[in-house]
Amino acid sequence: MFLYISRRLLYAIFVLFGVATVVFFIARITGDPVSIMLPPDATLEQENQLRSSLGLDKPLIQQYVIFMGNLLQLDLGTSLRYGESTLSLISERMPATIQLGVAAMVFSLSIAVPAGIITAIKRGKWLEKLVMSTVIFLQSVPVFWVGILLVLIFSVTLGWLPTGGVGTAWHLILPAIALGTHLLALVARLLRASLVESLESDYIRTAKAKGLLPKKVVGKHAMRNSLLPVVTIVGLEVGALLGGSVVTETVFAWPGVGQLLILAIYNRDFPLVQAIIIILAGIFVVVNLLVDILYAVIDPRIKYS
Q: What is the pLDDT of residues 176-186, one digit of tens each?
């Protein structure tokens, strides 16, 4: 296990190196931030002076070498727009994004797991058709559409919940539902398919023949073997939740990293865009490593070498 984790950490370094390289060059082709930072009547001398102070007058390869050197020292640069350390700006916003992501995960799994179990047990019944039709519909609609629809129904029409912003737990409900809808549908469908396959296995028939209660057959035997694909997709969807938060935070004016990324892209704030994407990629890599380790906990037959 130690060798496996060490190898995966080495791969993670190469992945983050690749992400940093791609983000650096893509950010540079989006446009010149100097044109946004200065007023329209700025002189050429003022533009050159600002470009020189930002280090944008250097050749692109030299800028890349400086960027990677700073990255090796865990220095992700200073925001061009705010004049502050990118790490401090992200650390201020990250708690809100984590809070939203955790709430969306709790919401989706609390509904998806019972829905997957019920539809697997009630195969061919009207309840299964109703639940699966709803799940497929939820998986088909985009996050921003769900968010706008929730605002129209529960905020504008009924007046039950705030339209956006932060302050109380009520502000978290609508963005968490909008963000967690896709994961809910995905986990419910995957768990149902995995459970149906497990319930038709020989060891389940043996357990039933031994007279075990249906709850024990499903909960102890079938569920454990059905959790591996669910854990996999949940681990992968952590990245999707972080990415989806960009849209959700914009719709609901949620002050998280996603909203900060949109502002950074709009302002062509290279260092801030690079820092946010690298940190999100790092979180994604770490979560997937934890998911791989969790496999061995769920299924002791899995060995890493």
A: 888 888 888 88
